[in-house]
Each structure stands twice: as C-alpha cells, then as structure tokens.
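User: My collaborator and I are trying to settle a disagreement about how two of our proteins should look. Neither of us wants to argue from intuition anymore, so we agreed to look at predicted structures for both before our next call. Could you fold the first one, then the second, and keep them clearly separated?

Assistant: That sounds like a sensible way to settle it. I'll keep them separate. The first protein:
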Amino acid sequence: MDEKIKIIQQTLEVNQEEAETALKLAEDDLEKALYMGDYVARDYILLQIKFTSGASNHNKNYGLIGVVWNGKEGEFVNSDVAINDRELISNIELKVDPQVFMKALQKIKQSENFNFEYQIKKKIEEIFNPTLIFKIFKMSKEDQIEQLHDFIKEKMMNVLEGAFDLEIYLELITKAKLRNLFPEFFEEAPVEEIEEKGSKREGKLTKGSLDINLSCVPIISATKGKRISELNIGDKLKVKITDHKEIGQYLNKLLKDSSGTATGVISKMSFNENLRRYSVVVQFGPNIYGNLIVEPEVKISTVDSEISNNKEIDKGKINKNNLTIFSIIIVIIILGIILYNYL
C-alpha cells in the first residue's frame, strides 16, 4: 500500500492525502489510480474578494472580484470585476459556491463602470505573476491562512487606489470540478475526437478497461428539452448521477453544479430493439463516463435548452421592467394633464 501511494504521489505530483483518495477511488487498482489526477489534485485556486476603496466617503468604490488561477502551473485562467453601490455589494455572501458567486457578480455589473472594472482586471493580471500565483498555491496547501490573507492584501495595494478594506475567500479545487463549474474556461474537443475516443473505449472494454462508469438518469424537460433521437455525438446533456458506490458518491459531489446536476458529453448512443429504449453513454472527463437509459419519446434537458430557457427568463424580466416603466410614464403624463387643467 505504501509503495503504491509513493508511486501515485511521484507520478501525479500530489500530496499523500490526494494519493490515498485516488487509490481508494480506484479500489486499490494502481493503474486506474494513475488516471485520477484531474479528480483528486486540488491544483486550481478560486479567489473571491469583496472590497471598499477610496480616500473619502464621497469617493468610495464598492465591488466584487472573482479570480481563477492554475496554482500548480502559476497560470492565470480568468478574472471578473463588478462595481456597484454599497447596499448591493454588502448583501452578497463570499463563502458560497463559485458558480453562484460569479452569477451574482455578473448580475450587478453596470456598463458605466466598464473602464474602471477593466483597469482592475488588467492590474490583477499584471501584478499576480506566475511566481506569486505559485506562492499563493503553496501557502494554501500548507494552510498558512493568516499569512496568505496578509500577502494577498499587500499585493492588492497595487491594484486598488487609496485606503481600502478587503474580505477574502479562497478555495482550492480540482480540474474536474472547475471544468464542471466553468466549462467555458476549457477548449472543447472536436466531435471527431470524441467519436475516435468512443471507438477506442469500445476496444478497451474487451481487454479490461481503466474507465470508471457511473449510473445516471436524464433530467426531464417536457417544454424545453429534446428527444434523444434529435441529439448527436458531442451534444451536452444534463444528468443526475445516481451511482451508490463510494466512488460514485465522491464524483457526484465533484461533478454536480449548484443545481445538483452534472453535464456530460454524449460519446455513444444506440437504440435497443428489445427494450425499445436508447442506451446512452456520456463523458464527464478523462476516463469518467455515465451510463443512462432514455425513453425515445421523452424530452430531456440539454445544455442548449437550458441556455435558451435562461434567455427567455431574462427576456421576460426585461419585458416586465419595460412595462413597469411604461406604466409610470403614463401615470406621470396623466398627472401632468390634470395639473395643467387645474391651473
């Protein structure tokens, strides 16, 4: 056991705890454990900041900052900034799911603050160079929480002008978790590559596969969903992982988003004539697959349908706001006419 742990640590460049998790998830299979790096190595840094800056009460700025770094490689991945009034910023919690935090940040962004927000983003990217990112990663791994917060505040002095206050929340996550939260940060594989991997996987199944297969069920969406016959290899499905094995429960926590569902890319699907149902395989990441059975007439949730639904909700909110504004204008006009006639 100790020898296996050492091999995993050296090969994947992970600590002992992460190596033990990889071996446990692989059910003591060393070869399979060596494919678990993306799922156990917490190499990515998520930094969430709430700040107040400015020299006087009349010139204060209130804002949120979200940053993602690849700590192990010392690489910048993404950042975003939102400036707004004190009340809105104070009502946003820092210690929340990163996806929820970024949604809140995006929601309060205002176009008139674009230049100031852009300047902050550029300064963060310039000041936090690869050596500083790696230092933050190392301090996080060693649980130097107090020193870490002081170090980040010191560097932020070069980003925010004048006196400022900072609240900081930092979290280390795996590549698999980050990919699930923010798939836009990663390049998508071409459909041809997905099909090629699917063919290779079928060949490996006859030899003894290193893949991990999880039981899943599709998410039903009667109004916005699509029938499985309308989908193709490479399309993305929203599924719920129902696997009761220990590895299934661990990966479910890792792969699910704030809605409790995981996103998988269709790598294989076939119609079973006897059962009159489709057998579908989705890929969550390297060597991690989900198996599900889908009724041909049932409409299921896809990433595209979910995006479309969100756009319609946003459109409805805009129409509602426009109607409210229009109503206020009508009331003002009527009041103006009454006052004019009265005078």
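The second protein, kept apart from the first:
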Amino acid sequence: MVLKDMCFFNKVLLRGPHLIKPFVLSADILVIKSPKKSPLLLRMSVLIFSMVCGVFICSVCLKQISTHARTMLMELQSEKPSRNRFGLTDVPLLHYPNPVSFNRSECAGNPVRFFAILSNQRSGSGWFETLLNSHINVSSNGEIFSVRERRVNVSTIVQTLDKVYNLDWFSSASKNECSAAIGLKWMLNQGLMEHPKEIADYFNRRGVSIIFLFRRNLLRRMVSVLANSYDRYAKLLNGAHKSHVHSTEEADTLSKYKPIINSTSLLVDLKDMEKRMAKALEYFSINRHMILYYEDLIRNRTKLKDVQDFLGLPQMELRSRQIKIHRGPLSDHIKNWDDVNKTLHGTAYECFLQTDYSS
C-alpha cells in the first residue's frame, strides 16, 4: 500500500506542471562539470618525446665510445717509444759480453744493447735491417732462424741466441768489438710462434728489446710474397734470384710479373695475417718493445730516430741502397685486379685497394 502511494506521488510530480516548479533547479545550484579530456594523447606525446631523447642520448654515447676505440687503435698503430710505456725499464738494459771467439780488448768496458726484430716476410724487414746496419755501432745479423736446424727445439733456439748475444756470431753485418747494439731478424714463421713463452722468458731474462715491424697494407705484402716466390724459380734477373734489389732497372724487371691472387680465399687470408700479428703482440706484450709499420718508415724518416732512441744509440743518419720493387697503384701489379677489387669492395679491407706508398 505504501509502495502504491509513493508511485502515485511521483506521477503527480512528473505530470502536474503546477507542482513541478519547486523542483526546477536554478543555475546557481546546478553545476555541470565538463567531461574530462582523454589522457591518451598526452601519454602518447610523453612517450614519443622520451623515445626521441633516448635515441639521441644513445647515439651520442655510441659516437663517443666509437671515437675512443678508434683513437686507441690509432695510438697503437702509431706507437712510439716513450717513458713508462714498456712495463719493465725505460731504457734498454746494458750488457758487457765476454765472447770466447775474440777479445773485446779496450771495448770490454763498453756496454751493449740486445734487440730482436720480429716481423713477417715481405714487410720491409730486409730494408729496415740495412738501415740499422748503416749505423756504425749496430750489428743486426739477419734471419738466423731461416735455417731449420737452429730452431728444432727450445734448446737449439737458446743456444743460437746465446751465441748471437755473446758476440760469437759472425755474419756480413758483424761490426768490430765496439758494437753498441747486437741483434737479429726473426720471422714469425721461423719457430717463434711455436715456443712463445720460453722465448719471451728468455728475452726478459737477457734484457732483449723487441722491435715489431709489420705492414699495414696486407694486400701489398701478399703481392710481394707471390712475386718473390715466383722469382725463386723464374730467376728473372739474368738467371739469379734476388729478394732485394739496388737499382731501378732491376726493380722494374721484377715488377713486370703480375701474380694472380686467389679472390675466393682472399678475405680469409687477410684475416689470418691480422690474427697472426695480433697473436705475436699478445705473446710478447710482457717484453720491452716498440711497434713500427713499414708505411710509416717510408713516409716519415723521423721514425728511425725513435728506433735509435729506443735502443739507446747515438743519433746518426741511416741509409740503405735497397730500391722498392712494387711502386705505384696496385692495379698495375695484380693480374686479376677486377676480381680482387670486387672482392674487397665494401669490406674492411677496401682501403688496401687505393693506398699507394710509393711516395
């Protein structure tokens, strides 16, 4: 009953216009809230702004990291001797050898430095060694370990080294008893990499300073290796094989041969060369050393002053009679140049195609 009365009462309120007036709401009482704006657009704007800022910050950081890494690589490639760089001593150790084959007489009190040139074939080591030997106080005895019997095992290697550093090794480079620096040239494939720990320990024990000599343009080195191997059998110079020449005529004759490079394995071969050099640097990083590049020696002869400082020698102008064989662009020295150019184009080794060190 009560429910029916309430329903009737509501109907009267809704139907009776004279009764509705008390329920009309004035503008002062009625407050209409505007609908809230959707936050989706605002959130999307903030998200996009955050993404843009993040990308910008990351790009700046990556650029700084890349620049730092490139700078470190350039410093390594152009490494020059300086104090506190070698980890052992700032100056080469001094020795006073007492050879059994002769008497140093009045030079017995003169100190001697020991060194070893570690390199690869056709990397300018022969030319570099003639430069060193032009110094009146230096004797570098060549590729002693090219003879297999001298590198059969660690014992024969040590015996040979002892003979060299005791001044009892005689070669065309041997100077008088007053030599101030004694050393040799040692190729990485002549037993050096087979016994790295024992040799590194020997160098440390005897105070031998290492000069690493490498070639940046490995493609040019490959051309030189192939051409030299061919001439061993062809003997282009009047029936005689020469790895190094002293006249432009001889150089022109040898450079006429254009080797064919295996473009299929070229990238792998170049990477293998790089790995071998990196391994050598890793094995002998504990030794006092400096790093040289053939191209730097050609372009900047002040590098030779760095070498003399490294060995603790009085400065002299160093000279060599050797003539560079493969001059000018590489396209003049590779028979299948188009294949090689196509293989290296767009790779990390593309720079090898254009670089010319003839100057």
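Some points you might bring to the call about the second protein. The chain is about 45% helix and 10% strand. The chain has one domain: 74-354.
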